[in-house]
Design a protein that fits this description.
alpha/beta, Quinone Oxidoreductase, Chain A, domain 1, 2 domains, six-stranded parallel beta sheet, 27% strand
Length: 345
């Protein structure tokens, strides 16, 4: 089979398409013919060399995978060849204590696809059958690829939040990006008044169409000034931040006393400064969130199938054009997720 390997990262990354043997599946695994694979900042940070922990090269990237089951192990009963599936980003065992508690993204034997194991930028990929979720025919391959990440990740993050009070505000940064545009929809569905932050006013009409109550374009004045004006200087109780360090300390300055800041993305890998006295004074909570449980992916499949959430795919690129996809991500012109498709099928 063919696979796209990142041979070396950095300013001038090197990729190579290689012919390699088909993965050998174990009794609890399935072999999937890849149909689409999402591309996000996690991939870009590996390509640039900024994300190094747990990564070895050469590496086949890709953790947002949809495809067709073509083979199953002898102990697999609930999936058969021909089934359409989406994969969990973390190939989970389904047997350990964390999996039993629906913490499949913290599986004790979990394998991070496209990070420390072969990902989806290949003709075929193998995963444990537990880590594949069936998808209905009315969801296209490119949309299916983003059911786990970003849609399921957004659902998982919002599960950390109490049910909103009347007109309670949720501020979402990077609202035009692959994760942000889906958080807008999910937060609105949960009952929040959604204030979306974007750096590009051209994205405003679509963000409003996706459910935002108000869009704030982050310009010279800084969005924290606007958020505090909207809230009479009280700040907002909830911020879902998909951008990270480039928007710090504006995110923190927008937070109310005893507010919650959930950081779901970091696009540059830069360090920030935090005055701990300010954090103590606010009584605020800052937490990071990564990964998605199987239950959240099952829910995301249902929401998309029922057309309650709209998967937003900005553009598809052939897998071998991954550098073009990466450059598009860097420009911040995209609205929604970029998806790569195998040009060898």
């Amino acid at each position: 089979m063919k696979a796209l390997f990142l041979e070396s990262p950095g300013q001038y990354p090197r990729f190579d398409v290689k012919e390699i043997p088909l993965p050998r599946i174990e009794s609890d695994e399935i072999l999937i013919k890849v149909q689409a694979c999402g591309f996000c900042y996690h991939d870009r940070l590996i390509i640039s060399g900024q994300l190094k922990r747990g990564v070895t090269f050469p590496l086949v990237l890709g953790h947002e995978i949809s495809g067709l089951v073509v083979k199953r192990g002898c102990h697999v009963k609930d999936l058969t060849p021909g089934d359409r599936v989406v994969c969990l980003p973390t190939d989970a065992c389904g047997l350990c204590e964390n999996c039993g508690k629906n913490k499949t993204n913290q599986c004790n034997k979990g394998i991070a696809l496209g990070h420390n194991a072969q990902g989806g930028l290949a003709e075929f990929v193998k995963v444990r059958a537990f880590s594949a979720i069936k998808i209905p025919d009315n969801i296209g391959w490119d949309q299916a690829a983003i059911l786990a990440c970003p849609i399921g990740v957004g659902l998982e993050a919002l599960s950390l939040v109490k049910a909103p009070k009347t007109k309670q505000i949720a501020v979402i940064t990077g609202a035009g990006g692959g994760l942000g545009i889906h958080l807008v929809q999910l937060a609105k569905m949960k009952g929040f008044r959604v204030i979306a932050i974007t750096s590009d006013d051209r994205k405003e009409p679509i963000i409003l169409e996706m459910g935002a109550d108000q869009v704030v374009v982050n310009e010279e004045i800084g969005f924290s000034e606007i958020i505090n004006a909207i809230t009479s200087d009280e700040g907002t109780d909830l911020i879902l931040d998909t951008v990270g360090s480039p928007l710090w300390p504006q995110t923190f300055r927008s937070l109310s006393k005893r507010g919650l800041l959930i950081i779901l993305g970091e696009v540059t890998g830069e360090e920030i400064r935090l005055n701990l006295a300010e954090l103590i004074f606010r009584g605020a909570t800052i937490t990071g969130h990564v990964g998605v449980s199987k239950n959240s992916v099952v829910e995301s499949v249902h929401l998309v199938h029922e057309k309650k959430i709209n998967p937003v795919v900005w553009k598809t690129f052939p897998m071998e054009n991954i550098l073009d996809a990466s450059k598009s991500l860097e420009t911040h012109n995209h609205l929604g997720r970029i998806v790569l498709t195998p040009n060898w099928i």
